[in-house]
Amino acid sequence: MLVKLTEFFRNLPGKQCAECGKEIEEQHECYGNTCNSCMNVQDL
């Protein structure tokens, strides 16, 4: 059975931080795999 492409991407698990394992918010222009907390970045 074939799955629609949009359904495939919708069902992918969330991206996790490589350091702490916490789920991170993905951004379209970023390929990083470390959360802001582990990178010592403060939220504005």
Blueprint of the fold:
Elements: H1 5-10
Summarize the structure.
The protein is largely without helices or strands and 44 residues long. The chain is built from one helix and no strands. It comes from Metabacillus sediminis.
List keywords for this structure.
single chain, 44 residues, little secondary structure, 14% helix
Total number of beta strands: 0
Radius of gyration: 14 Å
Note the beta-strand portion: under 5%
State the low-pLDDT regions, or none.
none
Q: State the assembly state of the protein chains.
A: single chain
Shape: elongated
Order of helices and strands: H
Taking the sheet with the most strands, its summary is:
none
Mean pLDDT: 84
Number of helices: 1
What helical percentage do the residues reach? 10-25%
Specify the structural class.
Answer: little secondary structure
Cα separation of the termini: 45 Å
Question: What does the model show?
Answer:
Pfam families: YhfH. This is Protein YhfH. It comes from Metabacillus sediminis. This protein is largely without helices or strands and 44 residues long. 14% of the residues lie in helices and 0% in strands. The chain has one helix and no strands. The chain has one helix at 5-10. The termini are far apart. The model has no long low-confidence stretch (mean pLDDT 84).
